[in-house]
Amino acid sequence: MTTDQIQANLIQASHQIDMDDIVREGFPTLREVANEVSLPLSDEDIRLGEKMMQFLHNSQDPIIAEKMGLRGGVGLAGNQLGLMKKVIAVLVPNEPEHDEAGQVIPPKEAYKLQEIMYNAKIVSHSVQDAALETGEGCLSVDQEIPGFVVRHARVTVEYVNKAGEKKKIRLKNFESMCVQHEIDHTNGIMFYDHIDLKEPWAIKDGMLVIE
Ligand SMILES: [Zn+2]
């Protein structure tokens, strides 16, 4: 199948992206630099982004995820669908809150970050590094690869949103790690490329560990 055919299948109205659409380690697009999406955005590329976001919503819904056999995900990149296009979707939920009686209640805003990004790139970053306390996983990697995935603590990212507007956002904490993971995919980089294999859990000077 050509990548155009792959995309045409993915964006059919009746199709919902599932684990069978996600390519795994060894598939060449995971190690290639994707092409920038042409602007203004085509209807096909807008629909692709929406399908990717729908996948993330489905994957975080326990009932739908079980029915469809989805692993939970907070981000997805075009390369993971066998496409060579710089499109990513990120969906980072907020933690539940507690009411005055200490009961767990849903957060006021469901998501910390919910965005489809075309041609996302890091335009500046902190000197400080950071890593998630528990390491990272990836929908394209079926095994656990333990270790700190050392990234920039804070990044400024430029991208085009699905309305075609140019955006520039600053990110820190989990959202920063998540968006860097997805931008890496569009450049053929896997999360474990950032793990020090000799000392996977070494905390480097000044590195922030994000809970
Ligand atoms: Zn990934």
Automatic annotation (TrEMBL):
Chain sites annotated for binding Fe cation: 138, 181, 185
Catalysed conversion reaction: N-terminal N-formyl-L-methionyl-[peptide] + H2O = N-terminal L-methionyl-[peptide] + formate
A single GO BP: translation
Cofactor note (record): Binds 1 Fe(2+) ion.
Active site feature: 182
Pfam families named in the record: Pep_deformylase
Enzyme class, broadest EC rank: hydrolase
Keywords, sorted A to Z: Hydrolase, Iron, Metal-binding, Protein biosynthesis
EC number annotated for this UniProt entry: 3.5.1.88
Taxonomic superkingdom: Bacteria
HAMAP family assigned to the protein according to its UniProt record, in alphabetical order: Pep_deformylase (MF_00163)
Record protein name field: Peptide deformylase
Lineage: Bacteria, Bacillati, Bacillota, Bacilli, Lactobacillales
